[in-house]
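Supplementary material to the annual report.
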Amino acid sequence: MRARDTGASHRLTRWIPAIVAPIAIGVGVVLVPLQANAAVDLPDLTPAELLEFAASSDVESLSGTIEQRSELGLPDLSGLTGAMGGGGGSGGGTGGGTEDFGDGDGDSGSGSDGDAAASATDLDDLISLATGTHTAKVYLDGSNARLQVLDRLAERNVYLSDEGAWIYDSAEKAATHLTVDQAALDALEAEAQAHHDEARERLEAELGAPLPTPEQLLDEALAKLDQTTDVSVGTDGRVAGREVYELVLEPRDADTLVGEITVAIDGDTGVALAASVTARGADEPAFSVAFTDVSFEAPDAAVFAFTPPEGTEVTEHAVPIPTVEELEQWKAQAEAESQAEAAPGDEAARPVVHGEGWSAVVELPAAGVGGAGFDGEAAAMLGALTERVDGGRILSTSLVTVLITDDGRVFAGAVTADRLLDAAATGR
Amino acid sequence: MPDLAIETHGLTKRFRSQVAVDGLDLAVPEGSVFGFLGPNGSGKTTTIRMLLGLVAATAGDARVLGADMPHHVDSVLPRVGALVEGPAFSPYLSGEANLRRFDAADRHAPRGTRSDRVALALERVGLSHAAKKKVGAYSLGMKQRLGLANALLMRRELLVLDEPTNGLDPQGTREVRSLIRSLADGGTTVFVSSHLLAEVEQVCTHAAVMSVGRLVAQGTLDELRGSGSRVLVRTPDPGRARAVLAELGLPIGETAAGGIRSVMDASGDELVTARLGGSADAAPEAIVAALVNAGVRVRGFEIERASLEQRFVDLTGEGFDVVA
Amino acid sequence: MSSREANDGPVGVDARVGRSGGAGGGTLSLLGSELLTLFRRRRTWALLGALALIPILIALAVRLSGGPPTGRGPAFLDQITNNGFFVGVTAILVAIPLFLPLTIGVVAGDAIAGEASHGTLRYLLIAPAGRIRLLLVKYAAAAVFCVAATLTVVVVGTLIGWALFPIGPVTLLSGATVGVGDALLRFLAIAAYVTVSLLGLSAIGLFLSTLTTVPVGAMAATAILAVVSQIVGALPQLEWLHPWLFTHYWLGFGDLMRDPIVWDTFGDNALLQAGYLVVFGALAVGRFLTKDVLS
Ligand SMILES: Nc1ncnc2c1ncn2[C@@H]1O[C@H](COP(=O)(O)OP(=O)(O)OP(=O)(O)O)[C@@H](O)[C@H]1O
Ligand SMILES: [Mg+2]
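Predicted assembly:
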């Protein structure tokens, strides 16, 4: 005869799939990435060798997906951005949003029209760049390039080719065509090359020795960099399923907010596959961009073809190509101006840099950006973003701090608020 | 002893605090027509649900057609037709479509003969003319008939019918009775739960009686009834009569209702009754002879075969309130 | 009533032969009967009719008002006057957050609870349908309804757009223009994407349906979960949770309107939905196998 408790134990066994399935999935979710990261061991390289390897990369064709994340620690703006017009698409592929609920009724929520809405939308776009996740596709072959930013139900594209560039925004239904005079560009290139060769010959003649090789130049640059930054090769890892070296830059300067910058370099091709910036003391990068998948085969040529669709507003823009003489003229002019920097009358128009290295602070004089330049909605947003301090308003993120003084000057840098206030007070 | 179509040992079902079925030991012989009796709420339907694998037993085990339930539902149930706690159908489908649906659910039911079998089953319960009508528009009895048709879609070795004549008209009731008889003649074991004792008496070969979740009697109909026969003696000498009956070994005072007792008659005679059976297997003529020899003036003598109803009430109590 | 016939007649013999028949065909046969039952219900057609109303109303509204100002309303709406094909895509976009989950909730939530409330569940089980087999068939039927629901919106939208507006080559999000044939294929792919998106919700609905004998409860709970998940998906404070929400990729079908088509989202979505299907399918099996059928 069967044991009396078979009923109960049988019931338990029938729950086994229900218990095992979530556990199996959970284990899979944890283990698969672990597995992917496990046991990457590329031949050891010094930082200099790694940089050289990267510089010698000869990859011309590529297609892949890039994911960019920002976690800058901005104040929560969801309330404000939600009230904005439905135009600006937020993160690509990010889950169902409230805006689309509202739009379902054919009512776009915000009643604002015209310029006010436009400037608010621009600010919204900016903020969306600084927060959240963006996905883009990149395509390269020898002579063409395309960046395809995947917004939700919208798309922005940049097409580059020998004939010029197209920028297309599906949400705005606007295309911008940038053209260059190819003949002029070729002429410029040839002339520049000639100038370069000539200068080189002259220099070598003067020095009585050949110019330093690129390796020597690199070593020199590294030595200079080493004064401000600790450059090292981190542990090998995996990006987009490929084995990568990790180049780590750590500022030696204690004043900066930047903790470290890492660049992942493909162990096979030398292409940079990921980069991230981590704030001092943070575990997760404040800003990162990385390939999630990549292929080095030449993409289909059709990918680079673009003709503005019907009903698109097309802006034509011819980029003027200067001749070498013009370039030299500009250079001379710029030098002359920088000599005259001290002249107080001129100062108003030009940004000033205080300090150097990682803790440099940029000052924009009063005319640059003023509170007055914003209308109501944008000003409200600025108010929400910034925080009142003695002498101005501070916008602080985990990487960058911005100070807008009451007299309209703007100070910005990858430094603490105190450093900015100090710069504003002392002008140094 | 023949093989058992249904066999349970200590079958128990507890709903939270309440014990609906309590240690049931049921034995239904193959080929029998087995009446499953019990007042409302005594646990009949719960037992049937356990037998069919719809409900898991809290303790004990059940074997149906020789296989453990509920572990072998897939091999046992195709051989079992059932009507459980009334018929149930999708009201938005026709009677025929409902039957086809249940038939499709049985993977052993051949698709090729489905139409024929459905038509035949409908004909057997007299629903051929209402086959295309939506079940939502069926009367109570029509639904009951359709439920029976569903149980008869395939050739079954066991039919479990929970109150099959509920809601049927007299013709329907008669048809069900003859149906059960003919199925039993064909070798099918029929397990019928019912309150209609007259009906059970007419068709059943065996029966069991439930009371408050427990089995209080089980056996052939004769076994059940036999122990309930009574002797009725009409006489002006009740004292002497009682003494004689007691001397014969007829049960005395075993229960208030079953022991010797007397009732005053309008004529002044008393009616002395005693239960037949027990150790003394006295023939009626022997009892009369003993009474007369003892000088009892016998004015009337009768052997009353107890009806199943009387037996049922004896076993499950007179109370009308549902014990729950 | 002629019972002898049934016991010894040809039917009985056939029945015994049928017992050796294949089980696979039996399951398909049960699925066929389940679909027949589903699509014979007036309620199913009412749900599909309500979904068909969405593109019809959108098309009529745009037609009568002469089109909305560009940049307002859901994406694609402003394209309808130029190209009627966009009615279907706009309607899908409008239907995804609420209307589609609502109809799926009704069908999936009703799957087991509805049978229980009619009492037909016990007769299906003693047929015997087999508990796991019944769950599988119920889920498959819900999935078929998902296909029917999305196709209704897309096809009715495309047809009414065709009837009321000029049609022609379709401009994709990337700015490329594709011919009518290519566009129609993409609309079918969108229907497939949205169908896949709803499979996780169907599994949740099926599980909830095994918990109760009150179908309305399971239906409402399913639809409410879909809405809650979308609200959670819009809360930046819960961003870590977003990739795990079954609604996360619901609006990702726009990737099929790019050039070249970006299939990543389709794959990610399918994987996520499969995860939900496995987890809630296993829960439903666990629950249904141990459930006492008392209705
Ligand atoms: N789902 C349930 N939950 C709790 N108790 C239940 C449930 N179903 C039945 N019961 C209890 O179990 C007992 C037996 O019920 P059951 O339906 O088996 O009686 P029955 O003998 O079939 O009665 P009837 O003659 O009225 O059909 C009753 O006391 C009832 O209250
Ligand atoms: Mg009952």
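Residues B 44-45, 85, 162 surround magnesium ion (ligand 2) (CB under 6 Å).
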